[in-house]
Amino acid sequence: MQTQQEAWQTLAKAKVAATKSEIPQEWVLGQADLEDAKNQRQLSGPFIEKFLDKEELEIIRNDSVPLVEKIASGQYTALQVTRAYCKTAAIAHQINPCLHEILFASALSRARELDAHFSAHKTPQGPLHGLPVSLKDQFHVRGADTTMGYVGWIGTHEGDRSPGKARSAQSQLVGELLSLGAVLYCKRAADALARRDRQQLDRADVESGQPASVLRGFVGRDVANTNPGQTTHPSSVGFMSTSIDALRLVMASVLSTQPWLRDPEVISIPWRQEIADSTLERASPDGAANDRLPLKLGIYWTDGVVGPHPPVLRGLHTVLNAVKKAGHKVETSHSLIISLLEWSLLMVWYQKVVDWNPPLHSTARGVHWAFLMADGAHDIHKQLSLSGEPLIPDLEEWFQLRDPINLLEYQDLTLQGRDYCEAYSDYWNSTADGDQGQ
């Protein structure tokens, strides 16, 4: 008879194997390729791309907006695009496991349906027709598990084993994306996985566990959603992409479905293109400032707790120089973590620098963390107890089981959060003085 530890480990291994089995045999890497991956310093770019053919490379190198346009014009089929994305994700997962759910079979089937619609009607099925989208494993997709990494949630509905509940739910946003023509092809790990020693991915890889080449459309959700019943500071859904145009496309598309009619927590504000246009008009296509009303940008050098490493700081200097050269106004932070010499140099290089000193971000972080831990980590331990899995060592110190805070403490915490939001709003508005309301 298995011990509890052996039981959850067996279940976890079975889930990992089942997920891997969803990769088509033609995309399975050989042992030599996997060994070669272990010796790579850089996993992004050429190493992964060498497994793709010319057409697949062309597809994944397209940004979301031109990609959707090319599908709508008939240059690519939804099936061609979906296969390229699924194959790239399959290769990435074998090299550095990053996916909780592989939806390749349903994605390819969905792509064929979209192509059939396009063939019959000569028009796309929505503004996101054929666009591959990956999801963080907090969203429910009918027919797939949602585990958020909990072994006890495998084959259940958030741990509920009632008949008929497993894999039957579908998140509202998922339905909206499908109605707009998107193709859902995978769900990634709730947190970026630790990478192999010495190996590097780019920043998009760190956020998603996937190579940047497939991060054209990704939907994440913040950690507040993992704390049931906490509505004082609600979680938010965040679209991630490699371009502003892609974010504009998906935001405008989703808001066009009027999600507030189905979710009372969503404010009924449609996409306002006129506001986006008025902002774009403040700079020419090449980025030069509009003399009448240039953009006003802020650079926050440090939060007073953690200072950026020298290469990052040099990058910020480069951005600041380019923005000011283009004629835009920049507000920067002034922190003691930046050396006096460095600040003096900044003042020489960039005249008329205005300090950007908002309320301490450490205050916001403290309030946020207190909300997350208000239940004394009881919810996390409840989910772990479903299978008997332990906390991983890195989390043992932070999530030790303790007494929840009492109601009066929680109310005080709510007021602290409100006061901080008001202080930040007041500071933001104070920077508009003398700048035509900017």
Structural account:
- It is a single chain.
- The chain is α/β, with parallel strands linked by helices and 438 residues long.
- The chain has three domains: 14-271, Amidase signature (AS) domain (Amidase signature (AS) enzymes, Alpha-Beta Complex); 276-355, no CATH class; 361-430.
- The chain is 43% helix and 8% strand.
- The chain has 17 helices and eight strands.
- A five-stranded mixed sheet has the order 1-3-2-4-5, sandwiched between helices.
- Helix 4 crosses helix 6 (78-95), helix 6 (78-95) runs antiparallel to helix 7 and helix 14 packs antiparallel against helix 17.
- Mean pLDDT is 85; it is low at 192-214 and 335-353.
Q: How are the SSEs placed, and which strands pair?
A:
Blueprint lengths: L3 H17 L10 H8 L7 H4 L4 H7 L3 H10 L4 H18 L3 E4 L1 H18 L10 E5 L35 H8 L3 E6 L14 H6 L9 E4 L15 E4 L3 H12 L17 H8 L15 E4 L10 H16 L3 E4 L7 H10 L4 E2 L5 H12 L5 H8 L7 H4 L10 H24 L8
Parallel strand pairs: 2-3, 2-4, 6-7, 7-8
Antiparallel strand pairs: 1-3, 4-5
